[in-house]
Specification:
The protein is α+β, with helices and mostly antiparallel strands and 391 residues long. Helix content is 32%, strand content 20%. It contains twelve helices and twelve strands. The strands form two sheets. Strands 1, 2, 3, 4, 5, 8, 9, 10, 11 and 12 form a ten-stranded mixed beta sheet that branches. A two-stranded antiparallel sheet has the order 6-7. A hairpin with a 3-residue loop joins strand 11 (371-378) and strand 12.
């Protein structure tokens, strides 16, 4: 089978809700990433054959095919098409899979996989907030209800995972503190500098402020275990709080995927080779447990063991997810989310897939490691797994 290579990967620093990226129209923010991928790779913009962009809330400013709109706002020529993907939180990881599959099939040579989400300007759940009347207008259809009559959500799933794996509130809060501490250390040491695309802070009316946004805004530099423990529970008798869950975040991210033919023709230097791609559907009620069986399946298909992987990125949607994943897979916790995760850095929904990949690729390079594995839980009970080999 033909190989697929990543030759550029970049992300904006995360912005808090109502924060330093809130003045950006998401289409224009995504266009900045597309331009940066072209600039960093040195590829002629006209050579890009498709832009595949993950986005969860495809409504309002992110509607009407946000990928194509981002192309039209970028330096890419209008001959470059674009399509938008929704696999919930794994949307841009799936965009990467589609891009790699296009290259590996031999039908394309240069594809951009990206993601964008402005959770400030297009709030979470907006796309499911149409008026409901007499049971109509709800995305849970009557047939789904027959199969799954109970109410469930990501929050319910997080609580279920904590109970199933015996995870206490204290363990979740300790993990949340670790996420902030890792992110603080990484930021202070300049670890993220190479992967972050500086963008100008825009005011509410869209005008430039003259100040650049270069650091993840969600990191709590004053975080302590006591302050995290002081955050109220989201559910009485539960263990999940806003402090041990991912942060609402604005951001855009992307990677450029090319064939071996393009690599040679264009004289490109690969960051990594796509070693394995897979995904798995799982129980939609517990919902967020899917990364566990998906990881085990991926390793089996790839003929690898968990200890063969040097670094892991497991999205911190809620603290029970990576903790349960560690428990079930037996992975070394020192290799997991080594620069912090979404609890500290933010989770810009559809942009998080290529965000995690960008961070993983740069971490492998910085630490001179070979294999990295990325996975994340997704609404509806799914998980993508991507294994890359740094070159």
């Amino acid at each position: 089978m033909a190989e697929a290579y990543i030759v550029a990967a970049v992300r904006t620093a995360g912005g808090r809700r109502g924060g330093r990226l809130s003045g950006w129209h998401p289409v224009d923010l995504a266009a900045q990433v597309l331009d940066a991928l072209v600039d960093r790779s040195g590829v002629d913009p006209a050579r890009v054959e498709d832009v595949i962009m993950g986005c969860v809330s495809q409504v309002g400013e992110q509607s009407t095919n946000v990928a194509r709109n981002a192309v039209l706002a970028s330096k890419l020529p209008e001959s470059v098409p674009g399509t938008s993907v929704d696999r919930q939180c794994g949307s841009s990881q799936q965009a990467l899979h589609f891009a790699a599959q296009a290259v590996m099939s031999g039908t394309m040579d240069v594809v951009i996989a990206a993601g964008v989400e402005s959770m400030t300007r297009v709030p979470m759940f907006t796309s499911s907030a149409l008026p409901q009347k007499n049971g109509l207008g709800y995305y849970m259809s009557p047939e789904i209800r027959k199969h799954y009559p109970q109410d469930f959500s990501q929050f319910v799933g997080a609580e279920m995972i904590a109970r199933k794996y015996g995870l206490s509130r204290d363990q979740l809060d300790q993990y949340a503190l670790r996420s902030h501490q890792q992110a603080i250390n990484a930021t202070r040491e300049g670890v993220f500098k190479e992967e972050i695309l500086p963008v100008e802070v825009r005011l509410a009316d869209g005008t430039a402020s003259g100040e650049m946004h270069v650091a993840d805004e969600g990191i709590r530099y004053d975080a302590t275990l006591e302050s995290i423990q002081g955050v109220k529970l989201l559910q009485e008798g539960g263990v999940i709080t806003a402090a041990n869950a991912s942060q609402i975040c604005d951001g855009a991210t992307g990677v450029m995927v090319v064939s071996e033919k393009a690599l040679k023709e264009l004289g490109l230097t690969p960051m990594a080779r796509i070693h394995h791609l897979s995904l798995l559907g799982h129980d939609p009620v517990i919902m967020l447990e899917a990364p566990i069986p998906a990881t085990l399946q991926a390793l089996k298909k790839a003929g690898m063991k968990i200890d063969d992987i040097d670094l892991f990125e497991v999205n911190e949607a809620f603290a029970p997810v990576p903790l349960a994943w560690l428990q079930a897979t037996g992975a070394d916790p020192e290799r997991l989310n080594v620069n912090g995760g979404a609890i500290a850095l933010g989770h810009p929904l559809g942009a998080s897939g290529t965000k995690l990949m960008t961070t993983l690729l740069h971490a492998l390079k910085r630490r001179n490691k070979r294999y990295g594995l990325q996975t994340m839980c997704e609404g509806g009970g799914m998980a993508n797994v991507t294994i890359v080999e740094r070159l």
